[in-house]
Amino acid sequence: MAILNITYQGVSVDYSRDLDENLSDADIRRIAIEVIRAGEVPSLNLQEVGDRAFMYFVVDRFDTPEGGKRLYLRPKVPFGVI
């Protein structure tokens, strides 16, 4: 299981539920849109987020020092703004 961090419009927030670490990048992008629309991501209450909002975003995957997994959905550019 992994923790997903979503960076969108300059805001970086952890999604509170664990996700399968083996999900494809496309699945992670789709899930991010769904959980944001559902209001499940604090500080990202954007019910009108578009279907292609994360189309050009990168998914980074890291191991934590504690032995866990982290997934980062972020823009390809610095500072979280396209």
Q: Mind explaining what this structure looks like?
A:
This protein starts with a strand and ends in an 8-residue tail after the last strand. 16% of the residues lie in helices and 28% in strands. It has one helix and four strands. With 82 residues, the protein is an alpha+beta fold. The protein is globular, with a radius of gyration of 12 Å. The protein has a four-stranded mixed sheet, covered by helices on one side. Strand 1 (2-8) and strand 2 form a beta hairpin.
**Straight-line N-to-C gap:** 29 Å
Query: What is the element string, with H for helices and E for strands?
Result: EEHEE
Per the principal axes of the C-alpha atoms, what is the gross shape? globular
The class by helix and strand makeup works out as alpha+beta
The portion of residues forming beta strands comes to 25-35%
Cα gyration radius (Å)? 12 Å
Main sheet, how many strands, which sense, barrel? 4 strands, mixed
Strand order of the largest sheet: 2-1-4-3
Number of helical segments?
A: 1
Percentage of residues assigned to helices: 10-25%
Give the overall average pLDDT: 90
Low-confidence stretches: none
